[in-house]
Amino acid sequence: IVRPGPIQGGMVHPYLKRRQGLEPVSYPSDALKTALGRTLGVPIFQEQVMQVAMLAAGFSAGEADALRRAMAAWRRKGGLAPFYRQVIDGMVERGYSAEFAEQIFRQIEGFGEYGFPDSHAASFALLVYVSCWIKCHHPDAFLVGLLNAQPLGFYAPAQLVADAQRHGVKVLPVDVQRSGVQSRLEQQMDGSWAVRLGLDRVAGLSSAGANQIARAITGANNDATKNTTANPTTDTTQSAINPAQPSIKLPLFYSVEDLAKRANLNRMDLQALAAANALGSLANNRFDAQWAVSGVQISKDLLHVSRTSEPAAGFEAPTLSETVCADYASLGFSLEAHPMSLLRQHLPLHNICTAQQLKTFPDRRPARACGLVTHRQRPGTAKGTVFITLEDETGFVNVIVWPDLLEKQRDVLLKASLLAVFGTWQRQGEVCHLLAKHAVDLTRLLENFRQISRDFH
């Protein structure tokens, strides 16, 4: 229902209100009840518009089909204009008011922008139902599927992972000892399942490098399986490749150098893995991993290690903010913390509420929110209104920006990465959003993120 056609035709709110029992169901005539009965008197589908044209305006079947073809060519402006007089005159001649006839034609014009035929709507509804069921009952598998289907367009991996974590899904970091090329489910010692992030989440890691690591792991697991057959007393655990297959409980790689040699990785791949902390099981921390990588000398035909006899550098572990910054740079998100959880006490503004706190606010209460800007939308059907989504450590806040505020604060609203919004909280049932009155660009706090956290720690 939320498509430009029904929106422009003014059909969305009447249908939802009637569906919820907030508005009585009525029909312009008994004849139109035949076409609109199952959608509570509101035309929703293209087929219904054709039926209305035939029942109320006297269109023939052929003329109604021509109207359908004109609606289907929704990118061609003015394609429905030739039908205007026929719709208006036909309806007035049959006893409908000119006002009602104009309303019907506006709805038809809306479908000229984009409307669904019944069959398409049913197909989409089935996909939505199945997706919702999986997300409700198997949120871990749902997250794996979404991560491996990227890019999807609307939600980035950061939002998907954060939402899954808020719903109790355990997400494990990228690890060269355990990760496959893609994300997957990994069974834990207690029998529960967690999502192990795949190597494809690491920025800068080539697909060839990821596949070489996966092949090296497969080879190690095959060798382990042979050894288990020869020595049945060997301790086993769940396989890094397939949780259903047992394997030896041994590290697959013994050092960064061992990984580089057996997976035949180049320097750029090694540096990408170190930056993403994917070598955490081979080094004490991110900095030690980067030091170890710098000691691997790679030439065209030869790989050797220049510091094999040196002890680990023993760098001081990175601060939480350094970890979060590096995670965002390499993965696009962090499993350790959300930036807002570290920045909140440094916000120069008062009475900033979290997304979770705002959910408890009543309708029309003044409110302030702050978060990372994850989405900006300016639909052509919204008459200049911009919709912004803010994300903090507790969830999302949907912000509505009217055209007059956009005109006054265009740069702030369209360019800020970290945004504070003052406005009025609006609630209608479970649907909540913040109607913006003023916005403040706090992106500078992100630029000073490392220093702020160093001072804090």
Structural commentary:
45% of the residues lie in helices and 16% in strands. The radius of gyration is 29 Å and the shape is elongated. A hairpin with a 5-residue loop joins strand 2 and strand 3. It has helices at 4-8, 12-19, 30-36, 46-57, 61-72, 84-93, 98-114, 118-137, 139-148, 157-166, 207-230, 256-263, 267-275, 286-294, 320-331, 339-343, 355-358, 403-408, 410-415, 443-447, 449-456; strands at 171-172, 184-187, 193-196, 236-238, 246-248, 296-298, 303-305, 365-377, 386-392, 395-401, 418-428, 431-441. With 457 residues, the protein is α+β, with helices and mostly antiparallel strands. A 5-stranded mixed β-barrel has the order 8-9-10-12-11. Strands 1-3-2 form a 3-stranded mixed sheet. A two-stranded antiparallel sheet has the order 4-5. The chain starts with a helix and ends with a helix.
